[in-house]
Specification:
Blueprint lengths: L17 E2 L14 E2 L2 E2 H22 L6 E8 L2 H8 L2 H8 L4 E4 L11 H4 L2 E10 L2 H14 L10 E7 L2 E6 L2 E5 L3 E2 L10 H4 L3 E10 L4 H7 L5 E5 L3 E6 L6 E5 L8 H13 L10 E11 L6 E5 L2 E5 L3 H17 L18 H17 L7
Parallel strand pairs: 4-12, 10-17
Antiparallel strand pairs: 1-6, 2-3, 4-6, 5-6, 7-8, 8-9, 11-14, 11-15, 12-13, 13-14, 16-17
Helix pairs in contact: 1-5, 1-9
């Protein structure tokens, strides 16, 4: 494994560590409705299997990554709430889950501040989990090393050349030969793989953590200890740390990465509307990671000129499962074809696309046509 920075740098380490059960981008609704060419229930079953796979890996690694259970998906509008409530029983039966709907009056047992005033209700997903992502990644890297994987950190790939019987990988630390190449560069795809760079944009996902505050103040925000998810077209999250002394906030609040001060201010301004008590709290940590955006918003795995790739998967669960699937493809020498992976027009105008995406999603949020996932 060749990594340009340290393992987990970027979007993975900068995530909020939510291991959720719904299939990102597929949403809730009729299990038999066809989405992206497959019934919705198949996407959800795959997602559940992927989550269990990642949880098994975490268990095998023996790492204390502050694994906690439970999430609340907040419904911004009455329409969202009714949409969720209308399918919860059938989904529980189909996926053997135990999700529960809460109306606005009942949200007070899950979250403080103005959450009960600003949301129509919420879906309690008891089978969701969240972790401290840096610890999880360190544990999984240790598990990989114990199985014989050589991890070369702080080594940048600058080119990939086809050779008879394999490839030549050009890096700033020397060249290596390989029979198979798997690229998973995500929002950090550069000119070393032009085909993939033309099909992905890097959009920032930002996280911030508060100073240590009294545990009762943390419990007043996240009263049940579950992670809170505000999911419109853009996802915002709020959760306590494992020791219950800090609040961690996350969301895509800008179209291009800003300074740590700007990132803190933007996220703080969003969440203080929900939790006025955060007004006087200092946020001492800020981090940003670039997420790969594809034209259709879906993850893509396939092969181009003999090089296997997987990009655009959303979240830790999907990323781990994409890696598992690609490993199986290599082991079984399957040919993966993805004819739907379209390039971005005017790819070099990246900032223009990012600003347009932020404006469009923000406008959709404002008019309430939210896509709950």
């Amino acid at each position: 494994m060749i990594e340009a920075n340290h393992i987990g740098a970027g979007a993975t380490g900068a995530s909020l560590g939510v291991l959720s059960t719904p299939a990102a981008g597929i949403g809730f609704g009729d299990p038999d409705e066809v989405i992206h060419g497959r019934p919705r229930k198949l996407w959800h079953r795959d997602r559940l299997a992927a989550q269990r796979f990642l949880l098994r890996l975490i268990d095998e690694s023996g790492t204390d990554c502050e694994l906690q259970q439970g999430a609340v998906l907040l419904a911004p509008t009455t329409q969202n709430f009714e949409h969720l409530a209308g399918t919860v029983e059938s989904r529980n039966a189909l996926y053997e889950s135990s999700d529960v709907m809460l109306n606005a009056d009942e949200l007070g047992q899950e979250a403080g501040g103005r959450v009960a005033e600003k949301f129509a209700g919420g879906l309690v997903m008891s089978d969701a989990h969240f972790v401290q992502p840096a610890r999880m990644i360190a544990g999984l890297a240790g598990l990989a090393r114990s199985l014989g994987v050589l991890i070369c950190e702080r080594t940048e790939v600058v080119g990939v050349q086809a050779r008879k019987g394999g490839f030549r990988i050009l890096t700033n630390g020397g060249d290596v030969s390989a029979g198979n190449v798997f690229v998973a560069t995500g929002g950090y795809t550069r000119d070393a793989v032009p085909y993939l760079r033309a099909r992905t944009l890097g959009l920032p996902s930002i996280g911030i953590a508060s100073e240590e505050i009294p545990e009762e103040e943390v419990r007043d925000i996240c009263r049940s200890g579950r992670v809170l998810i505000v999911n419109r077209f853009r996802t915002y999250t709020c959760r306590p740390t494992g020791d219950g002394r800090r609040i961690v906030l996350g969301g895509p609040v800008s179209e291009v990465p800003g300074t740590p001060f700007e990132n803190v201010r933007r996220l703080h301004d969003y969440f203080v509307r929900l939790f006025p008590d955060l007004t006087g709290v200092e946020f001492t940590h800020s981090w940003v990671g670039m997420v790969a955006a594809t034209r259709d918003g879906a993850g893509h795995s396939g092969m181009h000129n003999g090089i296997r790739y997987s990009l655009g998967a959303s979240g830790l669960v999907s990323c781990a499962d994409a890696g598992r699937r690609m490993a199986q493809s290599i082991l079984h020498d399957d040919t993966v074809v993805d004819s739907q992976f379209r390039r971005w027009p005017m790819r070099d105008s990246e900032h223009l696309w990012c600003r347009a995406a932020a404006f469009t999603d923000g406008l959709r949020d404002l008019v309430g046509k939210s896509r709950l996932r």
